[in-house]
# Entry
Amino acid sequence: MPISDFKTAAGSLLSDPLKLRRQARKAADVLQSLSPSGALYSAHLRGQHGRRRAGSGDSFWQFRNYMPGDSAAVIDWRRSARSDSHFVRQYEWEAARDIWLLCDLGPHMMFAGEHAPRLKGEEAALLTVALAHLLARGGERVGLLGQSHRPIAGTYGTNLIAEKIIQVAQSDPPDITALTPPTRGTHTIWISDFLTPVQRLRKRLKAIVRGGTQLHLVQIIDAEERDFPFSGRINFEGPSRTNGHLIDSAEDIRLRYLDRLERHQDHVETLAKEAGATLLRHVTDQSLSPCLFALGAQLEH
Amino acid sequence: MLALGPIAFLNPWLLTGLILLPLAYIIIRAIPPAPRRYFFPATWLTRELDTNAADVKATPWWLILMRLLLLGLIITALAHPVLPPQQQLARTGPAVIVVDNDWATAPDWPSRREALLGLLSQLESQGRQASLATTAAPVDGWPEALELETPATLAEKIRAMAPSPWMPDYETALDLAMPLLAQADASVFYLSSGLNFGGAGDFISKLSAEAPLDIAVDSDAGLRQIAFAAVKPSPKGFAFLLIRGEEAPALTVTLVAKDGGGLVLASQQVEFKTGQVRYDGDFSIPAQLRGRAASLSVEGVRSAAATYVLDARSHRPLVGLIDTPANRGTAPFQSPLFYLGRALSPYATLERGSVDTVLKASPAIIMLPDQGRLPGAQQEVLSRWVDAGGILVRFAGPNMLADDGHVSDPLLPVRLRTQPRIIGGSLSWSNALGVSDFDESSPFAGIQIAEDVRVERQALARSSSLGSGTVWSKLSDGTPLVSAAPRGSGQLVLFHTTADPQWSNLALSGTFVEMLQRLLYLASSGQALPSGAAEPMLMTQFLTGRGRLSAPPERIANTKYSAPLSKAAGPDNPPGLYENSVGRGAVNLASAAGPISPRTELLSIKAATGSLPVRDVNGILDRSLQPLIYHIIIILVLADILACLWLRGGFQAHKRLAQRLVKAAGAAAGLAAVMWSPDTHAQETPIAQLAANVRLACLETGVAAVDELCLDGVDGLARQLNLRTSVWTGPTQLVRASQENLGLFPILFWPLQPGGLTLSDSEAQRLATYLSAGGMLVIDTGAGVSGQARLDTTLGPPELLASLAQQIALPPLSMLNREHVLSHSFYILSRTPGRRGDGQVWLEAGGEAQGAPVSSIILGNADWFSSWAKVQTSLPGYAGGDGRREELAVRFGINLVMYALTGTYKADQVHLPALLERVGRDE
# Structure
């Protein structure tokens, strides 16, 4: 956006918690209406979830051979009777999950291209609150990483998140490497543009996953960042507000930029893979629904 | 002044500024145009691209060149370059400026003065001396001799100079200019009026023989060379003759009559055709206003010749003819009134009637022929009128002497004998008498008396009473023919003979007419007539060259003019108003004596110049190049702005605006094309055709079989609609989402199949616009799963829903229930079956509420198309299914269309009777 707009770009969503909540609820409602009984977030994530591992629960998980030390009471006699060895019936471990949300609202997120409906940061906040909404409806406990002490279930948690996001937006961005990493068994959804140099990104990713959480990355970028539709003599000024980068004919470097961006995206994918994280991409001029859909599907696993 | 080739500079020292150009070159080169500033968070990415020195260019050379040119032009413009006429560059000696200052130069005198001043400033910058010679005598009279002066002092004189209201005098002007022309190196500018008043050819050839001569004429002076050649009273007002210069273009002017205070009394348009030099016309003015008119002028042309000062001679006075039973007679052609009327009507307006009638018209003079003493009351009012300054002219006759009344008649200048004197005739010794010449003191002085005038009878005055009056005219024996006596401030006049041929043939002669005219003049001036050469006249109002009456200049005011009215106007007899103790009159340029008479022709100077070229006035002046350079500078500045914008990629940034402008222009052009197309009504546009009926449409999926199914189904539905409802549909259409005119279809059907149709961004955009503008999209997946109240599974494969959600912004949806308008918009429905079972219908949530918006999206899975198609055709492809289900499907389809067309209109009242009945039954 022209530099003059940057100075005034407050991001109305990022100053009004009510508005943010309303819009997020609308986005969530669209999804909800497509799966009114909570197909994605409610049915599969309703409070108790199979954790795809043995544990205390109601659903059958697997049979395994009896091992010394197992109580005799756990032997499934019906199954054991069909073979020579003894089997133990294991149940899937089911529990409400803790889901941490991490929403990047640094100055580099306060950008919107000329045709974009809102700032990247607004989009990220919207996505965060809509997610929290859906997850809370599904019975999950949701918390804002670095802001909440622990995830909270219910609408109250959602409202809290909307307000905290606005606090985050209005204060300096926290140092992610310094956050207490979420523990094992939790899910963490990190929403950012990931357009940071790879080294720094790697450090942050590592810092987050070192506690053993399952990480989901949602990359929000603007169409202009993706397409670089510029031409002419432009001084590109970054968020650090130091000297800009003067380019005489932007159209000439477009291909090189796209190439460089693709390499960076590849890096991000590699990093995600290294950290065992999923990666979703979202461009601000698209509807949030597919992104929410996909996220729901990912959380299911 | 510095001359470089054909160009001269008025401020040449400013050209030193051009030294700055190399410095400017360095500066401009170092400072490229400012870039557009753009906030872009991923700047670190662009920084890593190898865009270093090679990419950052300096200012492009063409921009530098353009800016240097701009700077150079600004400096040049400040130095004020001019393009002097070629022939003057070499001249150095004194310049004699000969200027026409006659009446024809007056209308455009200001521009002529500007040209003169321009010429002088040019001479000043050349350091030449000059002298000014006028061709017409200045208002103050000719100077003794001409002297060379500096242009500055001459400019002062020119500013004070005014055009003269007379003709040029080429000879005197030449005599004055000759000594100067004899000087070495002298050259002559002749600023001509464009007219040749005779002698101009000779004048020009003599001038050019002495010194190099430039002749200049104001190019559109011809428009203003217009003059009165004659003005005469006419029955309607004034007959006038206007003349113009040769080669005059078509022109419409307005003639106006003004009173002494400048108030316009009447106006009239005069149209000249191209080349028409004379216009003979009649200016009408109401009789009551005529007397007040002081001048006649051509509006907008300020010259002495385009103004005609009116005096008594040009007025038509109002003459009252008193008609009494006695003088009316029995035969109208023998009545004295008839003869008087014939004699006066060319010069006067007549008011004929009783004393009262005549007095009401306030005549200038009243004539009362052949009437004895008037009855008391009439005599009373008439005497009062005369006392107040009126002139009563009476004529003798049988009736006057018929009784003794005349003896005591107070309205007679003399006492009369009771019997007329009979001169000549069968009982007389003497012959009828002629009229003797008029005395110098008589108002009739100067009138030639026709030789055959004879008077046979005469009302004789008593000799004792003659002392009280004056005799204005005598018969050859010395007896009075016309006597007069003042009464009050008026005058009583008596013709001692009749106004008809009964007593004399005077009434048949021209002399009679002239005598009456003199009387009219007497009446108009309100005074006694100016009696010939007796007394010199003084000027009271001077007609300036620009056609305005003003106080005469000193020289003229102090001169006594003898008989000016009969002489031609000129420096010695200036035009204007004169008066002496006895009367007043006007001198105009247009008069029988000259200088402008009906025979005058205004000839162009061009024929007289011989081989010398005639230039436009501006042709002898320097042409300033400043405006031209300023224009170039403005263009260059605009080009610079555009170039800078382009360099900054500004066009890209304002692309949207540009696109809009282009679109608007296109729309305007299209509209214009439609409006100009000769038979718009003959060929209906497709849009008009489409809009003529309600049309149902299928969204083209690109899969032929699906499209066909949809079309067949919707056709079937359309047919049922036409059969069962008042909806009359046009042919079903297959439309693309990219189509412009989606808005013409109230409802779109979309058979959504896995992998069937993916909308492009622009199509999705268009569809979204259509829906938000009140369109309705009916989506049928045909999956046919029923039972569960879950959209994601019932609609069909989940990816179908996902792809739908990606393409269309779906509102929150809910299942159709019985309360929804769609369930009773035409039929009351509880099921919505199609080919594939009962099916489900999902639509915008909250539609049951009162006044809820019409759902723009209706999602279903029952494959209604097949059911509808079954009703329409008995194609084998659609075989199967049961009739009841198809009927219900059709009913649902009709409900759909009704819902699309009428919305929630009277949602709860459509079936009010049926609903009420049900309520009763349930209870």
